[in-house]
Amino acid sequence: MTTQAKAAICRGHDHPFTIENVELDDLRPDELLVRIVATGICHTDLAVRDEQLPVPLPVVLGHEGAGIVERVGSAVTRAKPGDKVIMSFNSCGTCPSCEIKAPTYCYNFFPYNWSGTRPDGSPVMFQSGEKMNAHFFGQSSFATHSIAHELNVVRVPDDAADLPLERLAPLGCGLMTGAGAVLRSMEVRAGLPLVVVGAGTVGIAAIMAGKIAGANPIIAVDMHDSRLDLARELGATHAFNARDDAMGKIKALCPLGVAYAFDTTGISSVIEGLFEILSSKGKLGLVGASAPDAMLEFNESSLMGGGKTIMGILGGDSDVNDFIVELIRYHQDGRFPFDRLISYFEFDQINEAIAASESGEVVKPVLRVNAA
Ligand code: CXF
Ligand code: ZN
């Protein structure tokens, strides 16, 4: 049975998103139809709009959706109609990365997330009978309804059912990325220094996770004082403005170097500066997107002699289901108060929400799509 829906269509940087009627395909056995309650907006959506990523346009974006399951295919076991679910990225489940529970590095990431269709090339969405690019991250949640998959939905545990779905939506990308970078990728140890550059959603999630891990000191660096204030409230013990000799201040505070540095900016000079201040056995985690031809320079003796690690991180090495539930538990315990980052907008204010995110006024915009 096909489904009539409304979706925000992205036609590129010079066009506003427009909400239009679309139709969703019949469900395959491993698919679920989700009525979207809310969806976060992430920088990756805007990178696609700006044609910095190889996703075909026009397209329906959105990859931080949360909603209620309306129907499930015959092989779905993870959720049933009526269940509340959070959606995340999709993966094949069988490649060498998926086998070791590292699905963010799925060998088949592109066809499962960015091709605009199902991995077999079939469309999930149509407009006036014509194929529409969608199925972004296996969801395309800038819509009233979404076709999702067994492997990219997380059922909200029953004891968390009182938490509003509109709050839980951003767990599926930005929050799990920052928290996972600290707790899973870098495996931050208690009592050691952590520096986080960039106090957006990913950076502040990393700071909150640093506090959970017991890192000390926890140093936030950003160019906006309002974000530094928020970082301080949510776990940073120190917060330095990048315009004001932040590196010098970090060196003075941590004369033995920093054990963990996490860059969310993707700026080569920032990354190279962070490498310089790593301690022995220090880890430098990189999550920021750089220009496709960006190169890094670092000293080999220092890397080798100090036993240092530079690691690229995707999605915080999240194994979607378990880690999102773990983050919900921290939130319930008051240790991961990510609601402080969110500003809500109605679905038809999508362009205003994007503008507020791009101006830096809002950290994490969330669109309210349907009533819960
Ligand atoms: C993604 C990258 C790949 C794994 C999940 C998260 N980032 C999205 O913005
Ligand atoms: Zn994202």
Query: Terminal Cα separation, in Å?
Result: 23 Å
What is the molecular shape?
globular
Low-confidence stretches: none
Overall residue-averaged pLDDT value = 97
Bound molecules: cyclohexylformamide, zinc ion
Overall tally of domains: 2
Order of helices and strands: EEEHEEEHHEEEEHHEHEHEHEHEHEHEHE
Q: What Rg do the Cα atoms give?
A: 20 Å
Architecture of the largest domain, according to CATH?
Alpha-Beta Complex
CATH superfamily of the largest domain: Medium-chain alcohol dehydrogenases, catalytic domain
CATH topology of the largest domain: Quinone Oxidoreductase, Chain A, domain 1
Q: Pairing-aware structural class of the strands and helices?
A: alpha/beta
The proportion of strand residues reads 25-35%
Q: How many strand elements?
A: 18
The percentage helix is: 25-40%
Contiguous helical run count: 12
Can you tell me the CATH class of the largest domain?
Answer: Alpha Beta
Biggest pleated sheet: 7 strands, mixed
